Amino acid sequence: MASQGSGLCSCCHPDCKRAMTSKEEHNASERAAMVAVNLISSARVILGLDSEFTEYSAQYLVDNAGPKKELGQRELEQQRRGVTMQDCVEYLRDIANPNSQGETDQQPRRELTVKDCLECAFREGIPRQEHWGHLGCVFKVPPFASLIPRVPMKGEVIEAKELEEAFELLGKQPVGAKLHVFSPQIDSVGEGVYDGPGEGTSYVGLRDVIICSVEKFKGDSIANVKICYKKKTSFMKVSLTRMFAKLSSDGDESQGIMPTGLLVDFIIPRLSK
Question: How many helices (H) and strands (E) does the chain have?
């Protein structure tokens, strides 16, 4: 997950650089897309579909996964007549001269899940990372985007709720999951084992992660997990035996968490040749 969000190219517009710098961490849709493309890349190498680990565009999934918005009049006309040189000139003009508030044409969208992103890749294919905008790019998709080559993907999304089912999936390829994150424990785990809440803990929320392997460590069953947190990618050991529950402080039962493990909601892309 590191390369997708590790930096901006030197040609990126200043407005885009400012927007990325101002964010403490990637948003939920970006994190989901990063996990999805990593799962796809890993599965393709294992199946021999790619000769080496190939990075695909997480930003493409952010731009295209989820419900499709209705096309406006300008987009409909463009779709009917195809892309013209004038379309490209107008796009470059918009990039060079954004509005005075530094805003973009991006509209609010619902948060994407890893499942949304994987289904988009199977439905539409996905371009390589270098053929699309960087992760977190705030500018609108260019009018010639449909001409950018995409690698076709065949397969289905497999989900599992129980840890035992996830173990079976892990025998074939890395598995996506959600991790319950608590601070400051997540920041101070280092080479130790992340085992969730402790003294003075604060619940951060769920974060998409990749389970790479499981093993015994100092007598505990742990998962070796890859996570992007606060825009930094790292590996950590997560306890598979620790359970926790969270009570709602305001009496709203929907805000509480029933007894559960730290890793939940497992998912993989099952690719076919």
Answer: 9, 9
Instruction: Find out whether the peptide bond into 184 is cis, omega within 30 degrees of 0.
Output: yes
What residues contact residue 138 under an 8 Å CB cut-off, 6+ apart?
15, 16, 19, 104, 106
pLDDT in tens, 43-70: 999 999 999 999 999 999 999 998 765 5
Tokens describing residue 76: 């409909």
DSSP assignment letter at 148: S
Give the helix, strand, coil percentages of the chain, each rounded to 5. 35, 25, 40
| Residue ranges per structural domain of the chain | 2-153, 161-271
- Residues β-bridged to residue 237: 193, 224
- Reported as a single tens digit per residue, the pLDDT across 178-203 is 999 999 999 999 899 999 998 888 99
DSSP state of 71: P
